[in-house]
Amino acid sequence: MGRPRTNDATVKERLVECTTELLATRPQESVTVRAVATAAGTSTAAVYSLLGGKDGLIGAVRDRAVTSLFQALTAVPTSQDPLTDIYALATAYRRWGLEHSHLYSVLFGGVQSFKPSGTVGTSDPIRPLIAAIDRAVAEPVLDGQATSIALSLWVTLHGLVTLELAGALDTPTAQAAFRSTIHATLRGWTTPAAFRSLRQDEPAP
Fold it and tell me: What is the pTM of this model?
């Protein structure tokens, strides 16, 4: 059987799928153009023709990761309490990272950096979080700039998820650390009245 055409959209999709699968089982630096082409049953020329090389492959997987994370976060139901929603979004982010560790590595392991700005795209994974924070600031239960609050939450989340993925925290420890640390981060941005409420409502360890 001959190799498929190098300029076929079907081949491009298979290349991206194979790259995603390889990233799930081996370090990113070992995922070479030749390895992906072999897995996809095509030539290295197809990789360069369709995606421009390894950077293009990783970029395509990154785009897939962005879409997947966005879908996971936008699926979180919205309640009347923005702080509850922020915590639910943080939980969804952690769950996605643990279930898609290879995509998480591509998205936040150096290929993609987090750059909060005043403009958030319609398909940006941070959009649901910014929306919840905007509501919390408007009520007001949080006090600060939405992008600054979002950045502090992401730094906290990224540290927790990265440690958990690395095996530095077992599941019970990670779960307890997640709950207490996210609550503590939120308290740091709350208004005085909301701060007292969070302290009263936080479950005992």
Answer: 0.80
